[in-house]
Amino acid sequence: MKISVLNRISIGLLLCTCAIFANTAVLSAENRMPVTVEKDSKVPLRILTRPGAVLYADSEGKKILKSNIPTFTSYYVYTRPLGEAAGSGDGWYEIGSDDRGSVKGWMKGADLFEWKQTMCLTFSHPDGRNPVLMFDDDDVLNTLIDMPEAERNKKLNGYYEKIEKAAARKIKLEKDFPIVSIEPKMAVDNIDKFTLIPIIDYKVVEFEGRESRLLDVLAVNSTDKDRKESDIRKDDEYLINSNVSSESQAKEVKNLKWDIVWVIDTTRSMRPYIDRVREVMLRISENLAGNQALKGKVAFGIWGYRDSLDVKGLEYVTRNFTPDLQDINDFIETAKNVEETKVDSVTFDEDMFSGIHDAVVDTKWRDDSIKVVILVGDAPGHKQDHKWNATKLDQDGMRQLANEKNTTIFAIHINPPKSKKHNKTARKQFETLSLNPGTDHSVFFDVEASDIEQFDVAAAEISEYLSNWAIDAESALLGKMKREIIVVKPDAPDMVGPGKKEIERALHAAVVTWLGNERNVAPPRDIEAWVSDKDLMDSTRQALEVQLLLSKAQLDAISTLLKEVIVAGETNMVSGEDFFTSLQAASAVVARDPDKLAKAGNIAESGLIPDFLKGLPYKSRLMEINNEVWEGWGPDEQNAFLSNLEGKLKVYSEIHDNTEKWVSLNEGDDPDDYVAPIPLDLMP
């Protein structure tokens, strides 16, 4: 579960109006309902405990049930103080462990934070940016933002230098040092070390001409039973560990394994070059695995993809030629069986996205290996709205899936000279697919089909760097890689391709991610701090990403909504009825409140939208749809919109079925209360 990039964060929904006072009558546990975040909302209000929180048997504090509750433990609220008591922190909260009436006791307002929306932050990939500094309050952070760039960077360099010296035991951080904690230099593992960083408050600021946000956040590691505050002014252990760099741990990658899987278009249009593809592929693979230093380190696989089986004779949409990844000798024999189809696949574009999807998801990757996919094709993949796009994903959705699976993608597009329109589409798709985390540029080659040398050069570039990293990942991580050319290359003809630095950055980022996961790097925990969502020394780089924590029931509610909208849209396009008439027929909400949908000005007012989606910090096309908007789009845009929803449904289904994605916020949570972090750009 890696957590995927969001370029804009807005937390306006956190300024909710006061929640209503819960019914305080004595009710049976089965009938108790928690307080909601707003009067007309169905979203239950939750709290997070402050350090040293105490649970009492009553609202007078006469009997203590539990002392020193772990910091930032979450509870539901069953009674909430009103008026001055609510604002002063002197009021009492009745709290429970779930939203089904399991009331546990009472807690003072001063011992807790209200958490009005289950939104959290994660760190973006650490390559190419500075670690996030976590400030004690927002005063210093505001001052830094307002400084001229040179002055600000000097000040920040001073902070980083002082933290490094303190970690090396050369100095002691003063008690009033303005930074309470810092992001680890190594990549944080967000699967085994899920970090909950709720947003409590925020400020919108202008940072070097860009909109940025200063966020008041909490941080807690939900897997630790004995939670410990990671204040670097007090906690020497966290201070030292957070300053351990990937480079300092380079010896741990000495025996790193590499799994290299080729994904190849095997349709008829590839016939002029598929033999050459196989020859180059085999030559490269032999060079990679022929070195004794690589014995056991490198394994190979190959997938072929074609198009829909609606076209007779195509034989397969995708085929895995290597159910188990192979050593070089077996792989050479297997690759001889990879051939193009003799049947025309009707359209120029193919089901390339299924090829990538199946390789990423269904390859039998070895444990603890670097996963690399090399895509080779001469045509674009079907768009989302095409009936033969089996995944219903586009290049952005597929790239996000690859991110979650920690898969690095290189792409080689063979550029047919008479297909300019298709080449433009393919170029965009291949570039997006090969834009890997921690990099600024795609590892994408656009080679001319008429010049086979270009393909040789592209394949040799990939081979050279894969070889060197596999032979000596330790030296490569330290920037001391020997520049041996494993594959003899012809003089490089002109072609569109990445520079050597881009290839190396992609591999470096992959190894950094692997190393962070391997070491289970511990993130900050049990602190409250102010942070910037941008790198303070480079405002163009996003340092933090926003995700929404959803239960399976909530994810199912979104899926139901999207299915109803898809049915309504498809019905409208066939019947000619207006969109809302079709939606009324498709929606189960109508049976509960027929007038609300009939009178709605758009979907946001229809009663269809789950409460937890309302007011989220992203622009939703779904919310604004009414009859006029729908009809104004036209058939092509309508189809594209519905296909986009189908793509999201596909991703929701995979998240729903992926047990690794679901985590408990607190020890002992019922599985029904487990949540999965969902990037905001996956919301409809």
Description:
It is a single chain. This protein has 4 domains: 99 residues, SH3 type barrels (Roll), CATH 2.30.30; 136 residues, no CATH class; 268 residues, Rossmann fold (3-Layer(aba) Sandwich); 117 residues. It starts with 45 loop residues before the first strand and ends in a 5-residue tail after the last strand. The protein has 684 residues and is of the alpha+beta class. It contains 18 helices and 24 strands. The strands form 7 sheets. Strands 16-15-14-17-18-19 form a 6-stranded mixed sheet, with helices on both faces. 45% of the residues are buried.
Key words describing this protein structure:
SH3 type barrels; disordered N terminus; 4 domains; 684 residues; globular; alpha+beta; five-stranded antiparallel β-sheet; 18 helices; Rossmann fold
Give the SSE layout.
Elements: E1 46-49, E2 53-56, E3 64-69, E4 74-79, H1 83-88, E5 92-96, E6 103-108, E7 112-115, E8 119-123, E9 133-135, H2 138-146, H3 149-167, E10 179-182, E11 195-196, E12 199-207, E13 210-221, H4 236-242, E14 257-265, H5 271-290, E15 298-305, E16 318-320, H6 328-335, H7 352-362, E17 369-377, H8 395-404, E18 407-415, H9 420-433, E19 444-448, H10 452-471, H11 473-477, H12 500-519, E20 527-532, E21 534-535, E22 538-542, E23 544-550, H13 552-575, H14 579-586, H15 589-592, H16 594-599, H17 621-624, H18 627-657, E24 676-679
Parallel strand pairs: 14-15, 14-17, 17-18, 18-19
Antiparallel strand pairs: 1-4, 1-7, 2-3, 4-5, 5-6, 8-23, 9-10, 11-13, 12-13, 13-20, 15-16, 21-22, 23-24
Helix pairs in contact: 3-4, 5-6, 5-10, 7-8, 8-9, 10-12, 13-14, 13-18
